[in-house]
Every structure is written in C-alpha cells, then in structure tokens.
Amino acid sequence: MDRREFLKGSLAGTAAAAGLVPAGAAADATKDKAMLKLSSQENKIPGKDLHEKATKLRQWGAVGIELFRQHMKDPRAVNEALKDTGVAVSAICAGYFGLIDPDKSVRQKGAAELKDVCSAAGEVGSTGVIVVPAFNNHKQLPPKEARAVLVEELPAIGEHAAKAGTRVLLEPLNRKEAFFLRLLADAASICRDVNSPGVAMMGDFYHMFIEETSDLGAFLSAGKYLHHVHLATGVRRILPGQEPRDYAEGFRGLKMIAYHDYCSLECGVQGKAEEEIPKAFRFLAKQWEAAAA
Question: pTM (2 decimals)?
Fold first, then answer.
C-alpha cells in the first residue's frame, strides 16, 4: 500500500468518525450540491471560433469552456459567441501578474491589470480568474515575505473582483514550475487570512499528483475556498483515461465539500480530439459515479 492508498482511507475515516465538515461546508449540503460540471480549455477543442468550439463541447457533454486572458479585451464578443450554446465561461486562465515581485511598482501595475481582467470576467459570468503568484523564472520575494505581501494586497483586488461578480483563483503548481505556493492547503490558508469572497483558489490533478500525498486530503484542505479544478493525468499530463490515473479519490473529496463549480481539461490530447475528448468525459463521469462520498 502506497502513501496515497493509506491516506485515502485514513483521512476519510477520521473525518467521518469525528463528524467533521471540511472548511465551513454545510453538513446537509454534501449530498445535495456536489456535481460534476465538465469544461475544457478552449485550445483543446477544434473549431474556427468560440461558438463552434462551445457547440462541440455541449455535444460532448460539457457545460463550460475555459478561456485565455486575451478574450477579456472584448467580453461582449464572448457573450455573443456563447449565446444559445448551453456552455458558460468556467474560468479565465490569466497566469502571471507580478503580485510578489520585489519591485512594488511591478506589483501595483499587476494588481491594476488583474482588476481589469476581473471586471471583464464578471461581464462574461466567469467563476474566476486563475492567477499564479510567480513561476520559477520570475523575480519574486522570499516565501515568507511573498505571503505577507499577498495577504496585504489581495483584499483590495478581491473586493473589486467580488463587486464585478467573479473572484481571483490562486493556483498552486508543482515545484518544477513554481517555488512559491505548491500545496492546496497553503493556498487555502492565504484565502482564509485574506477573508474576501473575491479571493479563492483552485486545484489541478496534475500538480497535485506531484506535490500532494492524497487527492482527497488536498481537496478537504481546500474546502470552501475551492472554486475550480483542472483535469489531467499525473505523468504525461494528457487526457484522463489515456494513462493510468485514479480520479475517484479526488472526486470523493469534491463530493465531501459539496463542490459544484467546474472541472476543466488542461492537458495534452493523444489522438483525434473529436474522438478522445468525448471518451475522456465519459471516463470522468464513471469515475464521479464511482466516488462514494
């Protein structure tokens, strides 16, 4: 038995025995509100424009599409493209804004840019704007200082995001991509200290495979602050089902925290997308059903 298998049973058993409800989730909501809402980043889907891509996604069983930052320059065009498709904007993959750069002027510029993206994200009804505090190749403050700066700066950004009808989503990455912010529990602790409805977080099955000891435990540690999930395998970062990778453990954790936001593909595709993505969605639906909360 490896560490993941051991923790899968022990974490769930401890929570059940103690009667714990993770991170503020309502006890009577865990059975009723958890749902699998499938989505994909736009670049995985073949099509000449957003309308065509969204139409295909809906045909394949998805209800969301994750967009990149450049679309936020024209939110009205996004709304027009997605009208009557049955597909909504799940998240905005926005990336880096220099929020923990040593230069305060860089941080201020990044905060202003992030607020602009949040304004547009609210216009398209997105659940949130995905933000990476810093990748390894970026200048950044030491971890303790970086965390303090985020806790100081994020409340104002979060207030702006909440007024716009969306939120900032902090994304933990694996150590090969980011020194700072690798565990879901660390992101949740920042969200807790910021204490703003406009500041939340996300989890990524690929990064979690490298950094976390348990998918279930990671999602429990995220609790009410979790508002987006990326889907991928753990080794080659390809479509779920295209290499061995269990999602039922993590899905069980999502059910336990009454998760009802999107789960979105962020991965490579081996083979023809028109054949392999619908197959991946069917595989994920079976994994969700197999995950007993």
Answer: 0.90
